[in-house]
Amino acid sequence: MHIAIKSLVAGITLSAMAGVTFAQTVGKLEDQIRWRQSAYHTMAWSMARIKANIDGTYNKEQVAEAANVIQAIANSKMGALYQPGSDKGKGWKETRLKPEFFTDKETLGKVGPAFGAAANEMAKVAAGGDAAAVKAQFGKLGEACKGCHDKFRKEE
Amino acid sequence: MHIAIKSLVAGITLSAMAGVTFAQTVGKLEDQIRWRQSAYHTMAWSMARIKANIDGTYNKEQVAEAANVIQAIANSKMGALYQPGSDKGKGWKETRLKPEFFTDKETLGKVGPAFGAAANEMAKVAAGGDAAAVKAQFGKLGEACKGCHDKFRKEE
Q1: Which of A37, A59, A61, B109 sits in a 20 to 30 Å window from A133, CA-based?
Q2: Are B70 and B119 in contact (CB under 8 A)?
Q3: Residue-wise pLDDT tens digits, B77-102
Q4: How far is A25 from chain B, CA to nearest CA, in Å?
Q5: Which ipTM did the prediction report?
């Protein structure tokens, strides 16, 4: 926490020097990448939780908790963590962001909102507790994740 | 995502072999640690976002988004990611979990729920949009984070 705050302050200073203006919390490039990787990994954990419930014993509460995490992160305007140049650099590990993220605005304008909509619907369906509906929406949400990965994430 | 799912399956297999039974998604120890570190780091990012709004120009929507992330993660029963032995090992980096986490149940039983309550209140206050109330609750939430760190997290 202390480190994050310190980096944040450094990031704001850096941005001010670079003449960048934004109200968002963006931090330094390495912070942006680490925050992105953490948020995606937290969503991956939540996806794994939902999948375990679909494949095994279904627990409505667990699925709702996991879907709420994905929804909250999906609605966090993570775009602020994609400042120019952040397709290079290391957070927890080297970023896999492709430079196309900064040029193919048309695709980004489709896959970003599609993911947000799928995440909101997932949370709604999860709250309902119908396992079959959750399974169907989980598939759609996975496709929405993939829509962005296919275009903007390098293969490992 | 694919890797997380693969690890999850491996984790379940491992747990089954070890005779451990749980409905939760726990994965292998290294997955647990990486998921924990990711979730805490995502909360740290959200705390930094709230702090930037308190210290700078206040944006109600941003603060609510960040508080919702913290609340959703705080309500995700992360306890499942603290299987025995997970005070040693590496996720993104070496875990800082102290072994006391597994022995001092009395403290854990206080600081865990206190954090959850503070996170829920933070989301409620953030939705209200009163900057002074948000600042006050942000302080309380920080203390709740610290309550656990002081006891169960090694210094860096």
Answers
A1: A37
A2: yes
A3: 999 999 999 999 999 999 999 999 99
A4: 5
A5: 0.85
How confident is the model at residue B25, as a pLDDT?
63
Predicted confidence (pLDDT) per residue in A12-23, tens digit: 333 333 333 344
A8 and A26 in contact (C-beta within 8 Å)?
Answer: no
Query: In this complex, how many residue pairs, one in chain A and one in chain B, have their CB atoms less than 8 Å apart?
Result: 121
User: Cβ distance B29 to B55 under 8 Å?
Assistant: no
CA B141 to chain centre: 12
Q: How many domains is chain B partitioned into structurally?
A: 1
What domain range is B122 assigned to?
A: 2-152
The answer to whether A19 contacts chain B (CB < 8 Å) is no
Q: Please report, as a single letter, which amino acid is at residue A77.
A: K
> Looking at CA atoms only, how far is residue B92 from chain A in angstroms?
6
pLDDT value, residue B24: 54
Full-prediction pTM beyond 0.95?
no
C-beta separation of A77 from B62 below 8 A:
yes
DSSP character at residue A92? S
Interval B134-143: pLDDT, tens:
999 999 999 9
Mean pLDDT of chain A: 87
Dist. CA A116–CA B80, nearest whole Å: 27
Mean pLDDT of A79-92: 95
CATH number reported for the structural domain that contains residue B23 in this entry: 1.20.120.10
Contact, A122 vs A71, CB < 8 A?
A: yes
Nearest-CA residue of chain B relative to A59? Answer: B23
The reply to whether B18 touches chain A by the CB within 8 Å rule is no
H runs (alpha helix) in chain B: 2-17, 29-55, 60-74, 105-128, 131-152
